[in-house]
Specification:
This protein is mainly alpha-helical and about 170 residues long. The chain has one domain. It has five helices and three strands, in the order ααββααβα.
Length: about 170
Amino acid sequence: MRRFWITAAVVFILDQLTKLAVVHGLDLINRGEIDVFPPYLTFRMAWNYGINFGLLSHGSDWARWGLVVLALVISTWVIWWMRRETGNRWAELSGGLLVGGALGNIIDRIAYGAVADFLNMSCCGIENPYAFNVADIAIFAGALGLVIFAKGAETDKPAGRKPPRTKR
């Protein structure tokens, strides 16, 4: 679990520091857009009131606090799950990524009423209209990692038991 908590803390701190540096330090909140390495990387201010790609973005306080509660419930469940995945390095790292990112976005919802997104990447003549942040990357990578690396139900099976053989 130590690996899990260190990963979660590093992701949370990195997410919050990048948001402070870019959104407030570079004044992206007022500037709106900063070309860093166009079109591959642009800082573009976006307030996400919903979940990924703005889904469920009603902008109401019910939606805001509902998403905070949902993120806390999911994070708590992942923490409980990781306590059962002891010794599984990749699952612990993945769980830490997911929880650290979720907590970073929770802080945004509490402080601003929405998640501060600012990373925008486009390529090859395709204009990407969406922005994201470090927490979003960590949540996606963590969820994918848990799907790939967590053992889940395999750990619940009794060791060494084989199904009975049937006669033909």
